[in-house]
Predict the structure of Diaminopimelate decarboxylase.
Amino acid sequence: MKHSTTRFIYRLSEIKERYNELKSSIPAHRIYYSIKANPNIEILTFISQLGLKAEVSSPGELIIAINAGFNPAYIVYGGPGKTIKDIDFAAEKGVNYFSLESLSELDKLDIVEKQIGKNFKRILRLFIPNNNGRLNMMMPNSKFGITLEEVKNYVANGDNDVYGIHLYSGTQINETGFRASVIQTNQIVSEIESIIGYKLKYVNYGGGLEWPFMRSGKPIISPTKVEGILPDIESCFEFGRYLVASCGILETEILDVKERNGYQILIISAGINILNGISASGRLIHQQPDFHVSNNKNNNIMLPTAIYGPLCTPVDYLTLNTLLPQLFQGDILTIPNCGAYAANTGISNFLMREPAQEITVE
């Protein structure tokens, strides 16, 4: 019996192009790849061979990063809610860099250091209210980061050196905002150095450059050098979406076609079980996916179209109103820019359908 076509196809050459663009524009000491964007092992192996380092925020991400060839000594372990068990596990695997989100996490790192007799590189993830990006990670009640007041208390009551700072305020930031954020971060570096009384050795400027999700387009960073990156420090940036989004397309098969109220209604093989259920239907980031007909039908008549996934729930849709030519069962649709936050963000256990295939090509 023929199975439906539901697969992500990743073109590795796209990742290399994006990395070369970043290297040309950003004279940084180190560029991290954020594993959460796409943890496919073949993609990770390719990225590690390009020379990037890894940013992880869970034991599972750490394991797959090491298996893909990333050197644990240069992996930065971040994310909120770290437990002593998490920190100890990462330390055992060889992690030295910890981006810490709270005074409690700083205390937990102290405990692990005393237990194993080793000092780690303390990086303070700072809470600096900022509205950059379509997803603001620094809203007033954000779970992320340590306030400047908390830094002052930590320095006054502790005797452990701060190695560096980490700022990441949002994602889907345009290039102008991204370039401006470097200068803003440098101001924070100066402020922290005045609080602690010595020079920092590390600064993670974040990243978050915008890239379309499920839509056409390539907002490539201009080749002009990013100005203001501090030269005498471990200057780091982290990117996920920018590096891998363009490498992936999703192929999905039309399983059924209905006509109702002047609309063609398509049921396709990729629903919210395959794509990010929140983003795909516009609940988190308003998106209208671009659907391309892969067999180039010569049909100039465009029909109002609603596109649903195969799950037995009314929330399983990708769009309720787009225009497409007349389509039939068995036709294939493709969606561009599905290399990031796609295959790894579907609702895989809901209705327990098969995951999409993931295929890498040169």
Notes: The radius of gyration is 22 Å. Residues 278-286 have pLDDT under 50 and may be disordered.
